[in-house]
Structure prediction request, 148 residues.
Amino acid sequence: MEPSERQEAAQEPAPPARRPGALALAFAVAAALSCWNPLAAPLAVLVGVAAAIMGFRALRRGGRRLAASAAALGLVAAAAAVVVLALTASAVGVEQGGEAVVEGRSTQEMDRILDDAARRTREARERARGELDKLSAPDAGTPPRQKP
Prediction:
């Protein structure tokens, strides 16, 4: 490139953004889609606030409908995410009323169930252990496996 071409390229104005609020609106939509989920709500707060800031900046640059929509949707999404966070945070560590959905088993009941399962599978386990012992040739220095 010759020096005159460089000067012409430097003097050309940068192409204007196609739609000033389009990116802000995309951020706002992303925040709105993730604001309902308690795991994604913290991200929705950040993205919603960023979308609102970008929307207000686009409004100052001359964008109207898209920028205003982005700013409004970003603020609403951020506020909804804060509400979701507040509601879920208040439910953590609080004893919930009502009946348990799944009843836990006692230690005695679990011992009985496990003993029954061991009794049912003992023959198959002994057969499998015998097959493994047949397949592995014992070394001279290692004694054969003991049956429990």
